[in-house]
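U., I forgot to send this yesterday:
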Amino acid sequence: MKIIPARNVLALALGVTLLLAPAVAAPAGASGPTLPVQAAQAMDNIYDGDSDAAIDVARELEKSQPEDPLGYLLEGEALWWKTYCAACEIKWGMLDAWKRGKRPEDEGYLALADKAIYLARARIARSDTAQMHLYAGIAWALKTRLYGLRDEHRAAARAAVSARTQFLRCLQLDPQMADATAGLGLYNYYVDTLSPVIKLLRFFMGIPGGNKEEGLRQMQTGMEQGVLLAVDTRFYLAKNLRTYDQKYEQALSVAEPLVARYPHNPVFFLLLGNLDAELGRSAKASEYFDAALNLSIPDAACAARVRYLANSFLVSLH
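Result:
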């Protein structure tokens, strides 16, 4: 069993990362926000590995609907995906964006999240809707994950609790909002996965507790029924099953649809290769790493990082 240092677990646990996924029709019994066509286009670009194209679409949405938080959330999400790819490392045999310091571009990212929070609050003041609380929760989660990546535990904790509060209010107004359920699931899983020492610190910091099994059920709901967070939840569920539970076969079955739907996103190929490597399937893992190397990746920093990571994995296999 791999042991992850406590401070890294805390950064991950409090950095509840809620990436946006493409718009799909919610199944019967679930509800979700109604999105403009541009939003679906931007999210498809993000998840298929072209964040720059997504940023262009998001900014057009901001211009056409300046009082709607969605455009700012999408631009922030696109920036995060660039950040995530460039920050990925291999530690304890696992691929993830574990930690990095502050960067000048972080301020623009945080400003987008703050703008989305401000706009959501303004809309809530006029009409208290589940959709605006969902958007506010996602905006707080944008902040949470960057603070977690930068190892800023207190800031990450405060932002994570604020996100949780917004998701809870969203579900009070609309109990069928699967995206809010997904957000709570990520929180519940991560917080309950903390080591006993960090759980004690959580108590003194006033961070609400979680429940891992409930979190898994909530993530399953989000993965199957979410409108905004379905793909994100699938990605993080697969990583959680790998990182914390060592359930590599189950993680692989959860992650495989990501590559099938988004065949140009290198991170998805690297994740699948990582899982096959853990299962001792060197030939299959090599196929995924070679596929990542052969992708045309628009972002230069991400492309360079993918080449380094894929080659590092291939060397470890052979």
